[in-house]
Amino acid sequence: MYEIYQTQTFAKVVKKFFKKHKNLISTFIKVNEQLEQNPLHNSLKTHKLNGNLSEFYACSLTFEYRIVMIIEIKDEEITLINIGSHDEVYKKG
């Protein structure tokens, strides 16, 4: 089972995100449960990012929203980095 951590930035962003999208809280909980079990499960559509985000992975919260994270497979740790729409989480530095 993977341990899930949040950066301080993620904690702030997720709070704002759920003020606007209260309807996605239960989906977020389900995604986190799946990440704990298997972060590479097909249902999450987890994929390695490219370019300036190449150290990160992303998974789908919904069709429109993504979660960006670091996955440490060896240590079974996941650090959540960002959450938001495709354009918000993939924008250039």
Fold and architecture overview:
The protein is built from three helices and five strands. The protein has a five-stranded mixed sheet. It has one domain: 2-Layer Sandwich (YaeB-like fold). Helices cover 33% and strands 29% of the residues.
Strand order of the largest sheet: 1-5-4-3-2
Task: List SSEs in N-to-C order.
Answer: EHHEEEEH
Which architecture name does CATH use? 2-Layer Sandwich
* Oligomeric status: single chain
For this structure, the CATH topology is YaeB-like fold
Query: How confident is the prediction overall: mean pLDDT?
Result: 92
Instruction: Tell me the domain tally.
Output: 1
Radius of gyration: 12 Å
Summed up, the helix count is 3
User: How much helix, percentage-wise, in residues?
Assistant: 25-40%
The assigned structural class equals: alpha+beta
> Would you identify the regions where 5 or more consecutive residues have pLDDT less than 50?
none
Judging from the principal axes of the Cα atoms, what is the shape?
globular
CATH superfamily name?
RelE-like
Give the class-level CATH name.
Alpha Beta
> How large is the share of residues in beta strands?
25-35%
Distance between the termini: 32 Å
Q: What is the number of beta strands? A: 5
